[in-house]
Design a protein that fits this description.
Structural class: mainly beta
Number of strands: 17
Strand order of the largest sheet: 2-3-16-15-14-8-12
Largest sheet: 7 strands, antiparallel
Oligomer: single chain
CATH architecture of the largest domain: Box
């Protein structure tokens, strides 16, 4: 088995969410942060034939990258990773899946109260603004049919802010949903974002070559009224 560039990109991204990873049979790969406030799922080209656990995903990817066009052979206790010639190889042992943090199934997203489009440039700009202003939160509000994303310090009403309007729709204007910027650990892509008053959001990549979703918990300071 040779891991595709999308799979390698996905696993690298997942390592920023959780250093552990449990892979189950099939093409779906999921991860969950240790705080259980971020969950991600991707469908990859490869089909895995067994369950196995990786304790240090970044280390595993570094090992795979030691070889050009690395070939993986999966056994019950370990993977054999080698080059195409078969001359060089590494035996990489798996970890006990019971000791690793992993989701059992994807989240069933409730009906959203707010939906909007978040392109990768806007997402990058939000993160840059948060870094420049020293803020950690983005506020999502609606007015006159427009959804506005604002980088803000919610604990300081006179803090400097950065805001941008995005295409979207909502059921009621009386909402202020708060996300922690540090939880927006998505692969660079355009996303359809859905937000529920049950304090959960779903980010679905709209790229044709990425079957990728993230679920991110909202901050408890979020508000919504029908």
């Amino acid at each position: 088995m040779e891991l595709s560039s999308f799979t390698m990109q996905t696993l690298k991204n997942f390592s920023s969410i959780n250093p552990n990873l449990v892979i189950n049979p099939g093409k779906s790969v999921m991860t969950m942060s240790e705080a259980k406030n971020i969950l991600a799922q991707a469908t990859v080209p490869e089909e895995f034939d067994r369950t196995f656990g990786i304790y240090d995903l970044s280390e595993f990817l570094s090992v795979v990258n030691l070889f050009d066009a690395a070939n993986l052979k999966l056994d019950d206790q370990f993977a054999t990773i080698g080059d195409t010639s078969g001359r060089a190889k590494i035996k990489y042992f798996f970890s006990d899946t019971e000791m690793l943090t992993s989701p059992s199934k994807p989240i069933v997203m409730p009906d959203p109260e707010v939906t909007f489009t978040l392109d990768q440039t806007t997402l990058a700009n939000l993160k840059r603004a948060a870094s420049a202003l020293g803020h950690s939160e983005v506020s999502i509000t609606g007015s006159n049919g427009v959804v506005t994303l604002t980088v803000v310090d919610t604990s300081n009403s006179t803090s400097n802010t950065y805001s941008i309007d995005v295409d979207g729709e909502y059921k009621s204007e009386d909402f202020n949903f708060i996300l922690n910027i540090s939880n927006l650990r998505m692969i660079a892509s355009d996303y359809k974002v859905e937000i529920s008053s049950k304090l959960i959001s779903q980010f679905t990549s709209t790229s044709d070559d990425m079957d990728l979703k993230y679920w991110v918990a909202l901050e408890k300071s979020s508000t919504y009224k029908d």
